[in-house]
Amino acid sequence: MGIVTTVSLNGILVDQLDENLRATGGIARGLPPDDSARTPPDGDDLPAGAPFGPGLPFGVLVAEITDGRVTSAAVLDRRGTSQPVPSEVTSALLDVVVGDRPRSAELGELGSYRLVAGERTEADGDTVTVVTGQSERPLQETLSTLVTIEVVVVAVALLGAGVAGAVAVRRELRPLEEVAATASRVSALPLASGAVELVERVPVTNPRSEVGQVGTALNRMLDHVGSALEERHASELRLRQFVADASHELRTPLAAIRGYAELSRRGELTEEAAYSLQRISSSAERMSTLVEDLLLLARLDAGRPLERVEVDLTHLVLDAVNDAHVAGPGHRWLLDLPDEPVTVTGDPSRLAQVLNNLLANARTHTPPGTRVSVGLAPRDGGVVLTVVDDGPGIAPELAPRVFERFARGSSSRSRESGSTGLGLAIVSAVVAAHRGTVDVTSRPGRTEFTVTLPH
Ligand SMILES: Nc1ncnc2c1ncn2[C@@H]1O[C@H](COP(=O)(O)OP(=O)(O)OP(=O)(O)O)[C@@H](O)[C@H]1O
Ligand SMILES: [Mg+2]
């Protein structure tokens, strides 16, 4: 808009100036020559010629050219007197062709002028070329004022539009903050396990706006995620229930198999039959242990409450090490117990199982002669139990997942001990149910299990 206005105003003003110039040229050519009034040129100035007659506007330039020579040139100043014109403008004055449209020219210190040429026939029949000019300065001043105004107006308008736009955009997008807040609240929820109630939703005021659509889409996604999580939890529950039921149901027939195998072994038997029955007994026994372990894990998974009584850990450790000593007389069993009895609140039989599993590992996965030391110490409002052996250590590829279910080593030692890989999984689950932690560090020559239990 600014550029178009400026260009068209420039055109209009130049047209007006040219119009005036033509009129002025007519007046100037009509002036009678007055030789008596001619003043001699002063230094670099052209001869001033006759003083201006009436009817000429201020700033007008009149020059007379005879035979390709500027015979006189003067400018009418604001006081109505004619001022001399410097001689450097001669060539510009001579360039103006009679009959051409007015043209612009730079006249040195006079500034830029619009010039037009006409002819006058003297009384003696000579033709004199009269060049009339009008200063373009008023026009340029008008234009530069206009440009200044335009720049200021545009700047103010841009600023206003910017501020208004920013305010409007911010107000429009405010609901987006609500969307972001909901998304981050949801991401803070523990979705990985257990029952999750996904109640967070974005409040959508205008579902047709872009932000409303984002909110609606997010809500729809949360609905989907919520139902997927419910489905996941339900199937987890079903699986746990299934494992628990299956283990429970297997107990009775297994007990029956063991009982009948035991009973049959008492009669008169061939060597082969006795061997078979002995295998049946021991396999059934292993299977019973496995089923018991699975049942325990299923119950711990289901979050069945444990017994919570005061447990004397010192006592438990003593018993467990004594049992281990009997089971593994080839190993060297060391004890490091504090003088004071150490107690925690928990389930005594489960804690005993933790100890037994750790000691059984130290016994079955190490060669005879291995030294196993069991330590117990109170620490920061809890208890630390350590089982350290100087056996061959846990295989490095197994180490990161020893606490997983059915994770067991492939060494012949593990195989011949009939291991199932549930021992450490049970340790981990029982300790977690007591809100404790269990860690292992292992390298050849030193394997250390550390169990911390809160009081
Ligand atoms: N003290 C240890 N020294 C060397 N390896 C160990 C030790 N404790 C555990 N491991 C390795 O970790 C594996 C997993 O142990 P975990 O007690 O879970 O199962 P398991 O002893 O094989 O079977 P389960 O205890 O159910 O009879 C073992 O198979 C064994 O390879
Ligand atoms: Mg074990």
UniProtKB/TrEMBL annotation:
Question: Which portions of the sequence form the region Disordered?
Answer: 25-51
List the CDD domains hit by this protein, alphabetically: HAMP, HATPase, HisKA
Identify the PANTHER family for this entry: SENSOR HISTIDINE KINASE TRCS, SENSOR HISTIDINE KINASE YKOH
Q: Which reaction does it catalyse?
A: ATP + protein L-histidine = ADP + protein N-phospho-L-histidine
UniProt keyword Signal present: no
InterPro entries assigned: HAMP_dom (IPR003660), HATPase_dom (IPR003594), His_kinase_dom (IPR005467), HisK_dim/P_dom (IPR003661), TCS_sensor_his_kinase (IPR050428)
Give the organism, scientific name: Pseudonocardia abyssalis
Q: What is its EC number?
A: 2.7.13.3
**Which keywords appear in this protein's UniProt record, sorted alphabetically?**
Kinase, Membrane, Phosphoprotein, Transferase, Transmembrane, Transmembrane helix, Two-component regulatory system
Q: Which PROSITE patterns match?
A: HAMP, HIS_KIN
- The UniProt record lists the Histidine kinase domain at 245-455
Q: Which GO terms describe its molecular function?
A: kinase activity
Protein name in the entry:
histidine kinase
